[in-house]
Amino acid sequence: MDTRALLSLTTVAETGSFSRAAAALGFTQSAVSQHVAGLEKAAGAPLLTRRPSVAPTPAGREFLRHARQILAHEQAARAAVTRLTGRDADRPVSVSSTPATEHLVPTAGPLTAVVVHDAATASAALASGGADVAVVDGIAAPRDPLTGTDTDLIVRLVAEAPVGVLLPADHPLARRRVLDLATLTDTRWLDTTRTRCATSDLSAAARLRLRRGAVYSGSSTDTVASLVRAGHGLHAAPMSGALPDDDPAAPAPDGLTVVPLTSPRLVHRIEVRTHASARPAVLRLAEAVGSPGRGTGRPAL
């Protein structure tokens, strides 16, 4: 199957326009139209509507899901060949990290930039060759790796800490020794996706639907603390000692407390991922991630 045609289809679907797709890809509009028409003929069904707007049909949505996987595999194959042939030997190392782990990446050495993504996007960038190293965090069962690990990757655990519940110090549950998440599903939780111990991660790992409170799309731990303190929702937090330079005796921010979550037992993990075939400069930088004194300091939570 012609990957150029797949690229045309995915770009038209993303831009909603044949002309914009052609401009983005450097193809003629006629070529893009022919690519899409050829795929529709092969599929035996329309993949895109043309009127009143350009959008995937139900068959097109399913076809696009597979098309994106094929394109991702092709990118991964090209990146693997580049690594094995040494054609990237002189290229600076690139890192894709989650917002909560950006500060753990060394700031010295042959580093181009740290690009901040969610965990899934950071892992995809590593697979496609868009990044040499991925530094990701998330919530999992104890001793379980985070999702999205390929067999050809080196995965190093930087830190793993039990998950607790961050709540105002005057909250009725603040005096509890431990908490059961199943009893907190009717309690409001901050609706977060980019924070350390994001509520979306907690809900997925626990397989529980949590009642959502205020929506926060950023990654600032100070903002999370302020929102919890103001009563806009609870939030998960790693217990003290979650990072190599944590002070295990450090208290929670003023006006807050963290109560251990024991049911289900969950941990916040930070992992460094790189390819086993990566060049020495990449492996050295990956090994330095999270080393005390190598980052730019840790967040407050």
In short:
The chain has 301 residues and is of the alpha/beta class. The protein has eight helices and twelve strands. Helix 1 (3-15) packs across helix 2.
What descriptive keywords fit this protein?
single chain; 301 residues; alpha/beta; Arc Repressor Mutant, subunit A; D-Maltodextrin-Binding Protein, domain 2; 3 domains; 33% helix; transcription; WH_DNA-bd_sf; LysR_HTH_N; DNA-binding
Strand content: 15-25%
Low-confidence stretches: 241-249, 294-300
- Helical amount: 25-40%
Output the structural class. Answer: alpha/beta
The beta-strand count equals 12
Quickly count the helices: 8
> Structurally, how many domains make up the residues?
3
Rg calculated over all Cα atoms: 23 Å
CATH architecture of the largest domain: 3-Layer(aba) Sandwich
CATH superfamily of the largest domain: Periplasmic binding protein-like II
Rough shape?
Answer: globular
Can you lay out the helices and strands and say which pair or pack?
Elements: H1 3-15, H2 18-25, H3 29-43, E1 48-49, E2 55-56, H4 58-85, E3 93-97, E4 111-116, H5 119-128, E5 133-140, E6 153-168, E7 179-180, E8 189-192, H6 199-206, E9 212-216, H7 221-229, E10 235-238, E11 256-263, E12 267-275, H8 280-288
Parallel strand pairs: 3-4, 3-5, 7-11, 8-9
Antiparallel strand pairs: 1-2, 5-12, 6-10, 6-11, 6-12
Notes on the structure:
With 301 residues, the chain is an alpha/beta fold. 33% of the residues lie in helices and 24% in strands. The protein has 8 helices and 12 strands. The chain has helices at 3-15, 18-25, 29-43, 58-85, 119-128, 199-206, 221-229, 280-288; strands at 48-49, 55-56, 93-97, 111-116, 133-140, 153-168, 179-180, 189-192, 212-216, 235-238, 256-263, 267-275. The strands form 3 sheets. Strands 3, 4, 5, 6, 7, 10, 11 and 12 form an 8-stranded mixed β-sheet that branches. A two-stranded antiparallel ribbon has the order 1-2. Helix 1 crosses helix 3. The longest helix is centred in the N-terminal third of the chain and has 28 residues, at 58-85. Belongs to the LysR transcriptional regulatory family. InterPro entries: LysR_HTH_N (IPR000847), LysR_subst-bd (IPR005119), WH-like_DNA-bd_sf (IPR036388), WH_DNA-bd_sf (IPR036390). Pfam families: HTH_1 (PF00126), LysR_substrate (PF03466). It comes from Myceligenerans indicum.
